[in-house]
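We examine the record.

___
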Amino acid sequence: MSATPDPAPRTSLRELALLFLRLGATAFGGPAAHIAIMEDEVVRRRRWLTEERFLDLLGATNLIPGPNSTELAIHIGWVRRRWAGLVVAGAAFIVPAMLMTGALGWAYVRYGSIPTAVWFFYGVKPVILAVVVQAIWGLAPKAARTTQLRLLAVVTATLAALGVNELVLLFGAGLAAVAAARIPRPPEPGSSVVRQLVPIVPLAAGAVAPSAVTVSGLFLIFLKIGSVLFGSGYVLLAFLRADLVERLGWLTESQLIDAVAVGQVTPGPVFTTATFIGYVLAGPSGALAATAGIFLPAFVFVALSGPLVPRLRASKAAGAFLDGVNVASLALMTVVTFQLGHAALVDAPTVALAVGAALVLLRFRPNASWLVLGGAAAGWALHALRVASG
């Protein structure tokens, strides 16, 4: 896959801000869904990026710690407007979710519970599933364009379904692609894998007596987590539990579960769970400190790695490695989609919503955000009918 110039002229900061503010306020469903919606917006609709460039950026986000969909937004900002775009796109994507989770944190502290919205997720989840499937369907031909890469995708998906660590799979796929391309001396990032996984161990140290919550302490804890965390929201849960429940005693198990639930309830980055925790522990200043801590590394890592992506593609060995990472990323998205299916398709109406959304996407290619809102409306209508019928 050769690097090709992006098809659209330079993007204004206003366009970047408006797009990512809207996505941050409406993109439900977690990183896989966010990536799918971004692909629809910046590749299909606005033609800011080619499919090849989008896949390269997606592969790059999977090789650095932090929230993948947020880092992809930051990468897109970097490609379109360099430093200013990096800051604007990332901040615009984060701020709506930060405000929503902060408001839920205020309600939680004031009332001791989180407002429920079962009907909302009932309708939204099937639509999100359809959006992700459409993105995978569109990106797969570019990523898995050779027999070797298709085989690599199957192997990666199988190992992911068996529970193999995501980072191991991504680096393993990259190395396998280099070997398949018959590069005599492939890069050996295996040692970096070990270095990135080692910080997980101290986080799981034995519990100690609870200590006083401080704003600076919140910032440093979430800065550490944002600097070393690879993987899904379940990995985030493990980090939060080890540090905040077991080691410091700042949260109870019940409060942690509530915090993770808020990250799922709100659109945008799941990592804004940090905002909720910060508010519960130290009010508005704690919310800001925790949010800044967990997201700051993403901006730094993208700033350092963004300029290297075109050079990686220009190198035969690094390009093969990136091809392997790209196809492995899509394989992981496919596994996540199947996992989402178990939670989303719970009865005949949800199956009908998913199939209907998929057909609408394939036939008319509407804006995915409108489909999500339509799913929410359908969920509310079905809930109202059930309540009315007793």
